[in-house]
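Retro notes (design track)

What went well: tokenization of the new backbones is finally stable.
What didn't: we kept losing track of which sequence belonged to which structure.
Fix going forward: every design gets posted as structure first, then sequence, in one message. First example under the new rule, 343 residues:
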């Protein structure tokens, strides 16, 4: 192989040790340590192959560059069939055996032609014996596998037949028991049959009557329960209405106490009095002073009253006393608290 000036020539076995690869590369040369051969990994990349304690000869004993691999022929001699280095221990085992056999044959040639014939016959017989032994082992393996399969099939068939017999026997016993029961029943005459039918009809009628009675009682219970529920609902509704009425009345008339509301709810009637009083007069005539005096305001507070702007409203300041035909201030009385009114 001719490589150009910029390329280097290299030769090395591939990583499978199946062939030698020659190629040109532009990569820089690499240094490898002693006790290592090289194999080609990928595209132009070398990898170490440790040969110490593996090779029986020519393992590199000094460091070298990748292009100097030719100095160590053992790193380039490979067996493409066995895919190993020839110098590797165990790779040429078959070759060594052949060499020893030829040596033995050459030694035995001095004995005579008959010995040579016997050796050659023995070699042929040995080869045939080894082949026969290998074929015999394969045949034994096949026979054992077939025997195991047949044994499993036979066992399955035996179990199936046994279960089938057990099922047939069980069905036969059931049929015999049924036939014995039928034979053991005494014959029934016409009168007994009629009596039996009449008793069955009577029992059916009684059962229907009991069922009807139970249904009626259940219906009555349901009606009673429904009436009770309706009554409770009515009472709850009335109580809710009363409570709502109390709330409404108390909101509209906070002067009505709880006793009067209970009287209204018990008797259905209650008297509520609303009195509206309007004090009208000229300016600075004393309208506010009169109202405060009716509310029993002290003299010192009257002296501090200022002029009223527009209109003043006072709610729930007085209570109406129907029996006495007067009104009474809600403020605690000191001197004058009630005033007569006309209907």
């Amino acid at each position: 192989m001719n490589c150009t000036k910029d390329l280097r020539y290299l030769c090395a076995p591939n990583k499978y040790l199946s062939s030698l690869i020659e190629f040109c590369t532009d990569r820089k040369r690499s240094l490898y340590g002693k006790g290592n051969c090289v194999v080609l990994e990928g595209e132009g990349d070398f990898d170490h192959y440790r040969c110490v304690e593996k090779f029986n000869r020519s393992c590199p004993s000094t460091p070298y560059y990748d292009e100097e691999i030719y100095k160590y022929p053992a790193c380039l001699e490979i067996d493409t069939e066995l895919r190993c280095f020839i110098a590797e221990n165990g790779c040429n085992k078959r070759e060594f055996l052949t060499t020893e056999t030829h040596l033995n044959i050459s030694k035995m040639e001095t004995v005579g032609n008959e010995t040579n014939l016997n050796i050659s016959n023995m070699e042929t017989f040995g080869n045939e014996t080894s082949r026969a032994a290998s074929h015999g082992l394969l045949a034994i393996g096949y026979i054992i596998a077939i025997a195991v399969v047949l044994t499993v099939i036979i066992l399955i068939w035996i179990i199936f037949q046994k279960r089938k017999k057990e099922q047939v026997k069980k069905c036969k016993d059931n049929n015999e028991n049924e036939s014995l029961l039928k034979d053991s029943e005494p014959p029934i005459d016409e009168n007994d049959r009629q009596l039996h039918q009449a008793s069955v009809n009577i029992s059916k009628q009684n059962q229907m009557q009991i069922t009807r009675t139970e249904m009626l009682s259940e219906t009555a219970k349901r009606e009673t329960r429904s009436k009770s529920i309706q009554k409770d609902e009515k009472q709850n509704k009335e109580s809710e209405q009363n409570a709502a009425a109390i709330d409404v009345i108390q909101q509209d008339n906070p002067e009505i106490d709880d006793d009067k509301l209970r009287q209204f709810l018990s008797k259905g009637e209650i008297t509520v009095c609303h009195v509206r009083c309007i004090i009208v007069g000229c300016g600075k005539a004393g309208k506010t002073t009169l109202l405060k005096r009716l509310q029993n305001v002290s003299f010192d507070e009257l002296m501090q009253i200022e002029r009223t702007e527009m209109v003043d409203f006072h709610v729930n300041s007085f209570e109406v006393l129907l029996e006495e035909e007067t009104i009474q201030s809600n403020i605690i009385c000191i001197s004058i608290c009630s005033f007569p009114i006309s209907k």
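Added context from the reviewer: Residues 94-125, 332-343 have pLDDT under 50 and may be disordered.
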